[in-house]
């Protein structure tokens, strides 16, 4: 792996933002900002050997600061939603910042996506280090963490999270990249496969109810590859709740490394495999992404999808869900990888 750095811009607070671009030997590259550990670009040669940027993003710091959507960002302490922004841990009640329809979403008002991190290259990894103080956004414990990115010569982009806390806390980080394997346009013709037999039923605010539903025979059945647009407009109560797909799909919760999803675009010929050791993956079909200008012009609703690996949303409130609790002194490790090939 070789890498280069460049100045990306200056935040409103006057902080410089650096872009780190990783290159492999096959013409693939990944650009990550120290602002939010954000994946700003992920370039993959398509079936015609044309470099194709397969993630949405912006060309300036100002656009990242001014626009919502968490494009490419590192999400924490807890990705997805926590109901009513509160939880009980070890007999103590904690109140978090409310920032999404009465709930806590993606770490709160100033989540990990809005901070600048110290970076260093260690071997073949780009490593970001951070500390979240006790009480930040309402969470207990001082959390020390690293985010590691690696691009190998097999065209696999690796993300590893490590963390330790001095108090019991919640920790469920994820990456919020929006993927479009054609580089632009709608993703409704992209073919998706998700290796899950169940998904979390959600209410009208996209908060899990605790019920699990079988995917088989429903619009949520992606066990065999199908186009994203095939069932997205079906008169299904769960699709209405999310205005499309915005649901956690339940993977094996044993912690082993496994295939989570496969995405394919016939136009570019690019296939992306997502693998992880986490128990869930949030499939979000960009239902709420408003029309805006990005790196390559206009983007918006259904112009990409997110495949966010995670512990299941609002897990602290559901005993039948995998636990999001990180015990004091315990080392947290999770891994996710996106592998690209051309068919």
Features:
single chain; 343 residues; 6-stranded antiparallel beta sheet; 2 helices; 3% helix; 44% strand
Chain-wise SSE layout:
Elements: E1 2-10, E2 16-23, E3 29-33, E4 39-45, E5 51-53, H1 61-66, E6 74-75, E7 81-82, E8 86-89, E9 92-95, E10 104-105, E11 118-122, E12 125-132, E13 143-151, E14 156-165, E15 169-170, E16 174-175, E17 178-179, E18 191-194, E19 198-202, E20 208-214, E21 226-227, H2 237-242, E22 246-250, E23 258-264, E24 270-276, E25 280-284, E26 292-294, E27 297-299, E28 305-310, E29 325-326, E30 332-342
Antiparallel strand pairs: 1-2, 2-3, 3-4, 4-5, 6-16, 7-10, 8-9, 11-12, 12-13, 13-14, 14-30, 15-29, 17-28, 18-21, 18-23, 19-20, 19-22, 22-25, 23-24, 24-30, 25-28, 26-27
The number of domains is: 1
Assembly type of the chains comes to single chain
Strand content: 35-45%
Low-confidence stretches: none
How many strands appear in the DSSP assignment?
30
Helix content: under 10%
Question: If strands are numbered along the chain, what order do they take across the biggest sheet?
Answer: 11-12-13-14-30-24-23-18-21
Number of H/I helices: 2
Q: Indicate the radius of gyration in whole angstroms.
A: 19 Å
Question: Which overall shape is indicated by the principal axes computed on the Cα atoms?
Answer: globular
Can you tell me the CATH topology? Beta-galactosidase, Chain A, domain 5
CATH class: Mainly Beta
